[in-house]
Sequence to fold (535 residues):
Amino acid sequence: MKTPSDNPAPFQRSAFRSRASASAPLLLPLLALLALLALLALLLPSSPAPARDRTVNPETGAESLYHTDPIGRDSSGRPIVAWAGGRTEPPSSNAKRIIRLDLHLPQEDAPKLSPENDWLGLLAPLDTTAFPPPGPAFAPEHSSAHAIWRWIGLTAPDAVFVPDTPEGRALGEALRAHPPAGVGMVDVFLNRQSSDGPVEPEVMPRIGTGLRPARQEMLARISRTPREVLTQVAAHYGDRFEGSYIEALAVIARKEGGLAHRASELGRSQLTRKPDLPSNGGEIAGTLLHASIDEEWAKARVLAVADMAFDSSGNPLEAMPTHNEMSDAVFMASPVLAHAGRISGEKRYFDAALRNFHFIAGLCRREDGIYRHSPLNEAAWGRGNGFPALGLALTLQPFPEDHEGYGEMRDALVLHLKALASHQDSNGMWHQIIDHPDSYAELTSTAMIAYAIAVSLEKGWLQPSEWSSRLDSAWSAIRRHVSTDGRHFLNVCTGTGKQTSLEDYYRREAILGPDSRGAAMVMLLAAKMEDLESH
Fold:
């Protein structure tokens, strides 16, 4: 059976109560028969049935034909849980991937489903008609719709069967016309309950035309090399600099990836326009662009910014003064200070980098080894853990190994990554709130943590036997979240200062679309992945 496409086959025209025009009535019985045969091929197991992938419950030891994962929360804050059964292989397999939103008891339904296909569904009925979901994700009023819509897109099914309910029909109508999460189109069926009992699927023909099927788009995404990802994203990002760390990292990634770049021109131009010292951590970290430029004016700028870590008499401060008590500050200051030490040869800058780390770790590192975002609460924000991981990985690269702080920061990075390992989900992602899997899988934190893993593997700080697979899983997941044109990104947390409660982090907007922050982190990781592969 071929993959569904804009030319409807086998799903789209195998209608069981087709909405096709009545202009060819003699064809209807034949179409109905073909449709029935196609449906039976999908829904009934072959005989003998191929072996099914099974998972084992670690507590009971019992085998199961399905597994479950939270994909978000509903409007009341309860987890929305998806189930997956059948082969449950990546979409690169030859099996069909089918979502059944009318089946909610996988322990009963999984044994009845065709085992050569991947089957997915939700443990509870649809609870909203708001499709496509309006407003920002994941605001409580439409959090279910956003979670389900994005889950369907990332799952990239061949077909979605919706129940004959107001919620099911609303989702079906939306899927007819719109690509879920911007990924691609899917074939849709409405499952009607006939008067004599059996379910009679009815095709819901696509309205959207000329759009790539979701499965085809997802296969293209995951098959990309690091060079292809970097090149695609760099076609839209990494060619401007107004002083922020986001722009700096994108330009640096182009440079490190061997792409055309204007690092020196952009850095000098920005400094001419804004010669004053940075006023916030993001601009301090933006100085990393100047640290990448081997010219005297750029080196002078790095030293001038690094001197912000000392008072007017040259005495060291406890941390860079713009830290705002947030875990971000490990990244925002320590790498620049380390580069100042490299440029000047003065130990005091390396000492300041270590001191900055000590101060922030003392405020934000929890007993379990992951970081709270700030002392306001215990919430382990995703990017609030990505920043310390990325920050130490960048700090240690220019840091002298004979400095007394080198081993301490190296060990701190490794221990942080080990603490994060248990929170990587089955798809390879880390989440908006690290230890709350019902928060959304967040792109930038995953890219930042993956970069730190890549550096640690490169340096020999982590064992490849355990960590290479984690890095590969993260890289595969990241590619799923980046469109093949390199412009759009899925689930990037918007800019976030310290929040007063855990709930505030749940509600931070998850961007779907163009985003320079997501681009920068993906580009930085892609350049590093290419470097690892070349060695």
The two ends are 40 Å apart (CA to CA). The longest strand covers residues 66-73. Confidence is low (pLDDT under 50) at residues 1-63.
